[in-house]
Design a protein that fits this description.
The chain is mostly helical and about 250 residues long. The protein has helices spanning about 15-90, 95-105, 115-125, 135-170, 175-185, 190-200, 210-220, 225-250. The longest helix is centred in the first third of the chain and has 75 residues, at about 15-90.
Length: about 250
């Protein structure tokens, strides 16, 4: 009868078990920190890419907003002058060239279209978390001001249509086109002499009815053109703050 001998199994000491535990723990910990570091590097790289793209968007927006402000400020000033003329005299007693010129700007219209592709991409992908909280907050503020401008434009659309209808009952479109052509050319080289020359002409009005002029003024006033300027100024201010933050944070020139 054979006798089977069982192999002798050496038992590990507590120190050996502890050492193995420490080695496994260190391996897992180092792996975790390495992965975290890799993710942080990747996120920072992506954040910089988004920041560079957003800076370009904001730079284009600021150019657009400055033009937007200048345009509506000029329009509002001309409408103020028209209102003063009509407050002090009957339409039939005011040189028609002046009525055509100042009345033209009641139909002023310009859209602000923000370059928000980068923001929308970040928002939809959850990438806004790449930015520190203060920058993400300022991005949201700028987006809110941009939407406010667009909402204001949408709210004015029906009134704008009524303004154009009423204007068409007072002013002959042919002379409106002449006045508008002078304005468009003056965008690149302002020449008041051309404006003054036009205002001294006597283009015929379709109507000198005081009630119709009063209706036109009230409709134009309902557009609150200076509100457009206020909103654009707020958006421009926020865009400037955001540009400085992004450039400083990611060393963008």
């Amino acid at each position: 009868m054979e006798v089977h001998h069982h192999p002798t199994v050496e038992k590990k000491t507590f120190k050996e078990y502890f050492f193995e535990f420490i080695m496994i723990f260190l391996a897992v910990t180092v792996g975790f920190f390495a992965e975290t570091f890799r993710e942080n590097v990747t996120e920072h790289k992506r954040a910089r890419e988004f920041a560079e793209s957003m800076v370009k968007d904001l730079q284009e927006d600021t150019i657009q907003l400055k033009s937007y402000k200048v345009y509506f400020n000029y329009a509002a000033n001309n409408i103020d002058t028209l209102q003063q003329l009509l407050a002090n005299a009957e339409p039939k007693d005011i040189p028609p060239g002046k009525l055509y010129w100042y009345g033209l700007f009641g139909g002023s219209h310009q859209y602000f279209v923000p370059n928000d592709a980068t923001f929308e991409q970040m928002k939809n992908s959850g990438s806004l978390r790449y930015f520190r909280k203060s920058i993400a907050t300022d991005i949201a503020k700028y987006d809110r001001f941009s939407r406010l401008i667009q909402f204001n434009e949408e709210m004015q659309q029906n009134i704008y249509t009524e303004v154009r209808k009423t204007r068409a009952m007072i002013f002959d479109f042919r002379y409106n086109d002449i006045a508008n052509d002078i304005y468009q050319k003056n965008k690149t080289g302002f020449d008041f002499r051309k404006i003054d020359s036009f205002m001294k002409t006597n283009p015929p009005l379709l109507s000198s009815d005081k009630t119709l002029f009063n209706q036109y003024i009230e409709l134009v006033r309902s557009r609150f053109l200076r509100t457009n300027i206020i909103y654009a100024d707020s958006a421009l201010h926020q865009a400037t703050i955001l540009l400085d933050e992004l450039k400083n944070e990611y060393n963008i020139k």
